[in-house]
Amino acid sequence: MRYIRYVFMAVVGLSLILVALANRGMVTIKLLPEEMAAYLGQPLSYDLPLFVVIFGGIIVGLLIGFVWEWFREHKHRADARLQKREKEKLEREVKGLKRKSNEGKDEVLALLDDSAAAR
Description:
A two-stranded antiparallel sheet has the order 1-2. Helix content is 76%, strand content 8%. The protein has helices at residues 2-22, 34-40, 50-72, 74-101, 107-118; strands spanning 26-30, 45-49. The protein has 2 domains: 2-72, no CATH class; 75-118.
């Protein structure tokens, strides 16, 4: 299984290198339209290779997706935290009740009673 993962990663890496080599041409990226940039006094434009723009778009899209999913799953994480706290509270309560019911008994007999109740 490990080798399949290595082969897959090598194929993905090779395809990314091929895309980068095929798209080395320079493109101009303008952050603002020319009319708005004139008000700022400087044109906000950069000359970048096309593959940098492509890979940058992919990375930004992935980051937006991860953040969106993290916000979407907030409700599920909050429910899990609440259930964990409730479970821990109930476990403490059960231990206290077992301790109270086994008060005055021999420790070995109390352990045997606990194991019989667990079955």
